[in-house]
Each structure stands twice: as C-alpha cells, then as structure tokens.
Amino acid sequence: MLVAMPELPEVETVRAGLKRLIGREAVIERVELTRPDLRRRIPISLAKRLSGQRITGIRRRAKYLIIDTPSASLLCHLGMTGSWRLAAPGEELAHDHCYLHLADGRRLAFRDPRRFGMLDLLEPDGHHPSLDGLGPEPLDERAFTVDYLAATCRKRKAPIKALIMDQRVVVGIGNIYAQESLFRAGIRPRVAAGSMSRPRLTRLIEEARAVLRDAIAAGGSTISDFRHAGGGSGYFQHRFQVYDRKGQPCARCATKLVGGVVAGRGTTWCPRCQK
Ligand SMILES: [Zn+2]
C-alpha cells in the first residue's frame, strides 16, 4: 500500500461519494464530537452552528471538503487517513471523531486514525485562513490558463515541479500528480520554471488536467462501497507511469527511469522522454 496524502482526485472522489450518499434535502439533526481536536482544535461552536441545518451543497476547494448549510459550512481536510462513511448503530469504529446525525435517522461518521485531518467552521463569507491565498483550481479552464501560468513562472529559477506543487500557484497537485503530469508532458521536473516556453506550459496544463480527470474517473468508477472512499485506498486503482517506479522501464520507451529529490520530495522521470 502506498502511503501518501490524498490529492485532488481522491478528495474529489470522496466529495462525489458523499454527495451521492447524502442525496438531496438532508438535514443535520445533531453533531456529535468525540474529541476536542484533530490536527487543530475543533471550534466549540461547531456542533451548535450546524445542528438543525439543512445541507445545501457539498463542494471541494483544493483538498478541502465543504459541507454547506445556511448557517455556516463544515470545512474538512482528510489529512492522511481521514474518511467519511455511513455508520448505523453498532457500526462505530475506533477513531470515529465526529458523527453527523441526519434527520432521516442515518448517521455519517468522520474517522481519522492519524488525526492530521481538520474539522472547522467556514463562515458564509467564505473566508478562512486555510483557503485564503490558494491558487486557482487546475480543472478551472478560465482561471488556470497559459497566460496565468506563464506570468507566474516568469523569471523564476525554481524547478517547474516546485511551482506546480505550490498551492498558491495552483491547488491540488501534490507529489504524485506533479510527476505524472510532467512525464506526460515530456518535461524534466528540474527544468527552471522561468525557462519554460508557452507551448510547453500549454502542454503541461493539458496533461495535468488529463491526469487529474483520469484519476477522478478511476476513483469514481471503483467506489461501490463508500466505506472504502477515504484514507488513500483508492490509490490501488490508479496506474502510475513514473511515481514510485524508479529503476523500472519507461512505459513509453523502456529506458530505465531515474530518480532524485526535486522540490523536497522523491521524484522519478524518464531521462529520454523528459527534456
Ligand atoms: Zn521514456
């Protein structure tokens, strides 16, 4: 099993699963917290603000899940091991930290054994220290454009891999999908961001979107039981071309893949296909 933070496709898969699970017209009757903190303190007012509220939407921003109600939203980060599931009476598990009791009698459980996740309130104005300053969504074609990326990369000596993993530049691309996008675009991870031509940046944007869309489609199609949606188990379903494949043959040209540390993380690339 690969131990990795859930990235955008995993969180998007969890969002879609939660939305299907909750359906329309769900009301949170009561919020039950079993501990006062995860990575950070859970606000004392969270239960009160969300109890009795109708769920009006379930969104994702970067790697955050947002469950909207008219009063406030529940802002959730899965951390490394967070997951949501339906838990009928008797189906409680160790490390269930939050239960949303729905008015129709069902109960949603948030479980996070390693407690790197987060539960917080998001006010209706949408401002939160974790969200303010985030870059555009990679799948947003109006915001994540070649003009934007070229302007951001201009004169930057940092490796292109570091730029696309920087959440202020573009959100949701972590170590796995940065490597996969760069492989598909034929770009070496260490290339200085400022030296990238517009055609290469255009290609990188297209490949980043394609790899994320493929992963979302794979995650979405493999989840039949939502219990398996969180905690990174969906990684089993993905076929990675370079991630964690150092020393193995390139899927395109059979050259042995090489590796090194780029942007602070282990990185693999093909010395022939990526320039
Ligand atoms: Zn190759």
Can you characterise this structure?
The protein is an alpha+beta fold. Helix content is 25%, strand content 20%. It is built from 6 helices and 11 strands. The chain has helices spanning 8-22, 46-50, 146-153, 160-165, 175-185, 198-222; strands at 27-33, 53-54, 57-61, 64-68, 73-77, 83-86, 96-102, 107-111, 118-122, 258-262, 265-269. The chain has a 5-stranded antiparallel sheet. The protein has a 4-stranded antiparallel sheet with strand order 3-4-5-9. Strands 10-11 form a two-stranded antiparallel ribbon. Strand 4 and strand 5 (73-77) form a beta hairpin. Helix 5 (175-185) crosses helix 6. It is elongated and about 55 Å long. Mean pLDDT is 90; it is low at 222-237. The protein binds zinc ion. Zinc ion is lined by residues 250, 252-253, 255, 270, 272-273. The site of zinc ion (ZN) has 7 residues, from loops.
